[in-house]
# Entry
Amino acid sequence: MEHVYTRMRKRARQIVSRLPPPDFYQDHSSAKELSRQCLENHPVTAELLAFVTKQLEEDFGHGFEHAVKVAVDAGALMIIENKSAGHAADFINRRVLIVQCAGLLHDFKRKKDNHAEQGAAYARKVLQTYPLIPDEIEDVSRAILNHVAFKTTIAIKNLEGVLVSDCLYDADKFRWGPDNFSDTIWSMVTFSKTPIVKFIDLYHQGMGKIAKIKDTFRTATGKKYGPQFIDLGLAIGEELFQVIETEFSHLL
# Structure
């Protein structure tokens, strides 16, 4: 079964490679690059990256690579939104640090029930040893609490905390586009040992869930670019399903 999913993933990646990347990465390449530099070079996130590399489980589609992508995109969103609001560079850089901490830690408890709640508590504990003030740690924790789709969010009183939460959510949901078909679902079904027949039975239900994400983006930038991520994911998923019906029909 794992071998079959490996073949399906290969075909999915071929489809992904033929499509253009989301416009977000071209239109805001400088913000993404600045975010990546902040992630790799700031002492706090550099230390946290090393921690995540050693501690974050890799076998469920939400491992280190996912965490880094979310952290970088969340940082880029934070830069874009704060520059639009006219904030100073020092303020922006600090808020990028906070949202990147949330990005790196948001899925540590992904395989647990109520993973957002458990992840938020875990992040709060981990960050106690880092040079962050209590309000910043609380912003990270509440953002992790609010990153799950289709659930009621908890209220956040300060606007800075709201933006951390919204940037984390949007960056995480960007992954429901092409990334979902190039990587995530294959790790998930392999880990869960999902039978091929069950995978196919649930395929269109999963596609419908992806489609519903389009209307949930929260930041101004996410609302502008997020739907295209989802449309690309849906296009990939539809083409992949045709491939599965043709090339893997003997397994259905």
In short: The chain has a mean pLDDT of 94. The two ends are 12 Å apart (CA to CA). Residues 28 and 76 are 8 Å apart (CA to CA). The longest helix spans residues 220-247.
